[in-house]
Amino acid sequence: MALLWRRVRDADPLNAAQEDRVRAVLALGGVPYADLPDGVQQVRLRLLERAAQGHEAPRDVSAWAAVVASNLAMDWHRARRRQERLGERLASLRQEHPGGGETRVTSLAVAQGLDELPDNLRQVVVLRFYADLPVRDIAEQLDIPEGTVKSRLYTAVRALRARLHEDEVV
Question: What angle, 0 to 180 degrees and rounded to 10, lies between the N-to-C axes of helices 2-10 and 36-52?
Fold first, then answer.
């Protein structure tokens, strides 16, 4: 057992057969083909983290990796459903506030601008302006200083404003 765990720390923690099994579990769990390499890397990372934390090696690395892959597939579906629900909520908000074509153009430009923002900037904009959370709550939930939240908001709003001017929306 100690020899196996030493191998995990010193080399690739998954052999080819284990990697194939992880890919199969992810694929059968509904993870898109393009995301399979990321899923395999997540399993490797979790195995390496486990070793780095000093935990005992799993009795059956192949079975452990398959369970982790299955959990990753479930997480992927949860995240996808969350995105779909967010899209539905945003669509319902648009229907509640029907505006002229100008409002729709602005909404589309803002949505495209949000898509182009880095994840950390988009996250604070969505939490602040769409979820209507105060800066203090955002900082607490993301475990970052309030100043960082404010700085990210400032940078994101500047980028969005530039995008809207560039597209001649405003």
Answer: 120
CA atoms within 13 A on the CB side of 163: 19
User: What separation in angstroms does the CA of 116 have from each of 111, 112, 151?
Assistant: 9, 6, 18
- Cα separation of 92 and 88, whole Å? 6
7/65: higher pLDDT:
65
Q: What is the pTM of this model?
A: 0.47
Q: Which two tokens stand for residue 3?
A: 């020899």
Q: What is the dihedral of CA 107, 109, 110, 114, to 10 degrees?
A: 140
Angle, CA of 4, 39 and 52, to the nearest 5°: 40
d(CA 1, CA 140): 42
φ/ψ of residue 122, rounded to 5: -60, -40
